[in-house]
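Anyone up for a design puzzle?
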């Protein structure tokens, strides 16, 4: 067991790298669950809604600014790792140029969208927007770690942020009651603290002789432009429900929706593990190897997520009330819909990685664009009447359509449609991850 754990800790990709990331995500999940319980129980539905509304603006500008660039940094670094530092710096310069007008726009439209919130909460949201530049630096540094396949420090950095956030939250409690303001400030401070070691870890893999960043900017922007639609749709997907609901429902209802969604999306640990390894592993491989990898990941994920959804439907409602309190019991229907939606989103992301790895990001970008239009239309149709449940139903319907088109387009990149029946090789991968020998070949 000790040898297996050491092997997993040193992995820089492949199945073991994926397992390393998944184990890290399990730890992050536990920490996020602790912070979620702490904020939900101490803030209550109304305070939790105010906190979620402010934190929306901490993530939104930064994720918009790096759209396309985060995939571009990984892809271009995998093509020529000696230029990793130049690529990361070029990506940061491009992201900052995009971030400034995006953040300014958010500051302008924010008061209109948050018309149902107090002035203090809107001021807090403005502070979160201004602080979101920290996320730009953090996210691009982590993508550089992925590009050099430094999974060890990537996972440490990913875990350090929520752990530091939890420490800061607990440190606040002896001095005064937790409020939405102190919770947001703790998140900003945690991000600022973790940036320094993350950038240092990324820079350790950079070659001493670097190409001038402008020399790698053009290919980075060319790839990033084609992949931007995918990331923008992902940002849209992650935030459109909250952007629509924040102006439609009361803060308490918004808090119920935020808890239901975050609890359902714990299943994203699977997507995070797969996405962090897949592009870095496949960006330089021939099509037949890409197909074998994607087909196997598709099959294993399908059955793993199906089991997770069944367990979540049976036990999730009880756990949600037990963990967060009876005040959040009304969030259970939304949670169950979002659990199915989250599982399908994980499977969709695996297929998107196939397009990115083969250098063909345009088709999934178009699919993501159509998905965004469909989602917005469904959201505006269902959310005003049904609130959080309507928003969740709109997201489930839209992701089903997206998955259909992603599967249908695989032949454009030379891949066949993956099946659902598990193969002997799939089980051998599982045995390898568990440290067991593969099954013996069948005797003819």
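Challenge accepted. My sequence:
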């Amino acid at each position: 067991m000790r040898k297996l754990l050491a092997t997993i800790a040193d992995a820089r990709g492949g199945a073991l790298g994926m397992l390393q990331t998944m184990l890290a995500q399990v730890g992050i999940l536990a920490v996020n669950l602790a912070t979620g319980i702490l904020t939900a129980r101490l803030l209550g539905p109304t305070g939790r809604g105010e906190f979620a509304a402010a934190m929306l603006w901490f993530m939104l500008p930064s994720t918009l600014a790096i759209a396309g660039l985060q995939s571009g940094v990984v892809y271009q670094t995998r093509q020529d790792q000696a230029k990793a530092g130049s690529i990361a710096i070029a990506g940061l310069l491009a992201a900052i140029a995009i971030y400034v007008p995006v953040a300014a726009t958010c500051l302008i439209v924010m008061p209109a969208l948050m018309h149902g919130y107090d002035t203090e909460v809107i001021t807090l949201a403005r502070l979160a927007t201004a602080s979101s530049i920290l996320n730009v630096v953090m996210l691009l540094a982590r993508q550089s770690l992925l590009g050099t396949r430094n999974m060890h420090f990537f996972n440490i950095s990913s875990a350090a942020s929520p752990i530091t956030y939890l420490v800061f939250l607990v440190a606040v409690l002896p001095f005064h009651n937790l409020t939405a303001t102190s919770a947001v400030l703790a998140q900003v401070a945690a991000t600022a603290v973790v940036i320094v070691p993350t950038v240092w870890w990324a820079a350790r893999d950079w070659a001493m002789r670097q190409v001038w960043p402008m020399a790698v900017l053009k290919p980075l922007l060319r790839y990033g432009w084609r992949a931007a639609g995918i990331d923008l749709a992902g940002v849209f997907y992650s935030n459109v429900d909250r952007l629509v609901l924040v102006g439609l429902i009361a803060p308490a209802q918004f808090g119920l929706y935020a808890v239901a969604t975050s609890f359902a999306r714990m299943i994203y640990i699977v997507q995070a593990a797969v996405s962090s390894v897949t592009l870095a592993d496949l960006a330089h491989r021939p099509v037949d190897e890409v197909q074998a990898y994607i087909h196997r990941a598709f099959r294993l994920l399908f059955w793993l997520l199906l089991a997770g959804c069944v367990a979540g439907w049976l036990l999730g409602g009880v756990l949600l009330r037990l963990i967060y309190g009876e005040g959040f019991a009304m969030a259970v229907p939304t949670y169950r819909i979002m659990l199915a939606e989250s599982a399908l989103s994980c499977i969709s992301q695996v297929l998107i990685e196939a397009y990115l790895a083969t250098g063909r990001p345009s088709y999934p970008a178009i699919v993501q664009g159509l998905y965004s239009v469909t989602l917005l239309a469904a959201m505006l149709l269902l959310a005003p009447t049904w609130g959080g449940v309507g928003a969740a139903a709109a997201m489930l319907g839209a992701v089903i359509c997206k998955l259909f088109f992603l599967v249908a387009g695989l032949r454009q990149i030379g891949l066949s449609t993956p099946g659902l029946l598990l193969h002997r090789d799939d089980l051998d991968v599982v045995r390898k991850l568990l440290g067991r020998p593969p099954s013996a070949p069948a005797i003819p």
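A detail worth pointing out: Confidence is low (pLDDT under 50) at residues 1-15, 433-444.
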